[in-house]
Amino acid sequence: MASPMRSIGQVLSILKPEFPDISISKIRFLESEGLLSPERAPSGYRKYAQVDIDRLAYILRVQRDHYLPLKVIKDHLDVMDAGGEPPSLDAPPTQPTPVDTSASAEHRPEPARRDREPPRPVRMSRRELISASGVSEATLLDLERLQIVGPKRGTSYYGREALTICVVATKLAPYGMDTRHLRAIKQAAEREAGLVEQAIAPFVRRRTHASEAASEVTRLVLHAHAAMMHTMLEP
């Protein structure tokens, strides 16, 4: 028995509980980008089968949980359309790996593994950034005005950090936190970046392992920051 065909409004109602930010304009945008191809009724209205709804849910899920740009999601869908399994996804880049805080020498935090595959680079247009993160045009303009978010230097494209900040801005909004609060977070980050620069200065002067030192010190500072925040906010 064929699955029932649904209107775009019905699809919206089905997906709204899991994806509160979904909108008709976003569904149409994904279709315009070639990620969805619903049937058209003779009247011109879109009609969605269950397979279209499942496909849309997959797109929204990997955008929300893994911050993947549309080009990468389209590559995944091509694999699935050819009968393959969807590619496995790593954890979101904003989740730090736990550090063993034992004081014993044999349980010190291990340095970052050099053989670990680096995160896939993100290269997004402004339109893709707004669609993938759900950030409003007004909020993005404020973030850019405060120099919290911007294209990568010398390009018109936005990277992984810009995407992460825009997603965070969108998710903080319901808690009453806006770009003013993100500016305060940026100021705290600038102070921590200054500490990292001081710590790695000897390596930079000697031009030995400066990149590895920067990565390691940054990782440890982020772990300390997260642990202190959790301690301060414990009930």
Short description:
54% of the residues lie in helices and 2% in strands.
Would you write up a description of this structure?
With 235 residues, this protein is mainly α. The protein folds into two domains: 74 residues, Multidrug-efflux Transporter Regulator, Chain: A, Domain 2 (Orthogonal Bundle), CATH 1.10.1660; 129 residues, no CATH class. It is 54% helix and 2% strand. Strands 1-2 form a two-stranded antiparallel sheet. A hairpin with a 5-residue loop joins strand 1 and strand 2. Helix 8 packs antiparallel against helix 9. It is elongated. About 11% of the residues have low confidence.
Strand order of the largest sheet: 1-2
Number of β-strand runs:
2
**Helix/strand order:** HHEEHHHHHHH
Major sheet description: 2 strands, antiparallel
Global morphology:
elongated
- List the total number of helices: 9
Number of domains: 2
Strand content: under 5%
Structural class: mainly alpha
Which whole number gives the mean pLDDT? 81
Summarize the amount of helix as a percent range.
Answer: 40-55%
Low-confidence stretches: 91-116
What gap, in angstroms, lies between the N and C termini?
A: 54 Å
Radius of gyration: 22 Å
